[in-house]
Structure formats: structure tokens, C-alpha cells
Amino acid sequence: MIKNGLRLKSQVCDTQVIVVRSAESLEDLRAGGVRMVPVADESAAALTVDPAFSSGTLMGKRYVDDAGAEVLVTKAGVGSLSIGTTPLAVKDAKPLPASD
User: What is the reported pTM?
Assistant: First the structure.
């Protein structure tokens, strides 16, 4: 199982993330349609971004899925994040209370 704090990188673009909240669904975390690997993994593969998953990621944004998994993008890239073929959503900021 993927643990909180694990740093992952894309095999097809510059995207890097840190796992903020782990869930079993993260076992199939992908960027650009290709499975992400630990940052320490030095294997080089001749893979390309799947055009269906090329909307990109935003640095500093948190992405979540329905199972409660949450990742923080530490380096943006052209590949979009997904669990399998299900895209992750950008987590909305919590509104601050009004100070009247």
C-alpha cells in the first residue's frame, strides 16, 4: 500500500506529487495515462503522454478521488492525474468564515 508522504513522479512528463492522504485506489495512480513511480526510481522508459490524459497538472494544488485519496502536486507537468482511467479532481479551498 502507498503510504502518506511518499513522493511519486510521472514516467512521461515532469509531474511530481506527494501523497497527503493514502487510499487503496492510489495503487493505480497515473500521470498522462501511465503509472507513476517513486522519485528514487531511475528506470528510463520510452513512454509518451496519452492524449486523453494531457490536460496537465497545477503546481501547489491538491487532487482528490472519491475514495478519499489526496495528492499534492510539487512539480507541474503536461500529463493529467488519474486513478486508472478516472481523472482526479482539484480539491476546492475551504471558504474562510465571514468577519463582520
Answer: 0.87
pLDDT tier, 41 (very low <50, low <70, confident <90, very high otherwise)? confident
How long is the chain? Answer: 100
52: Cβ contacts below 8 Å, ≥ 6 apart: 33
> Contact 31/12 with Cβ under 8 angstroms?
yes
Average pLDDT, the chain: 91
Domain ranges of the chain: 7-90
52: alpha, beta or left? (left if phi > 0; alpha if psi -120 to 50): alpha
Backbone angles phi, psi at 29, to 5 degrees: -70, 130
What integer pLDDT is reported at residue 44 of this predicted model? 65
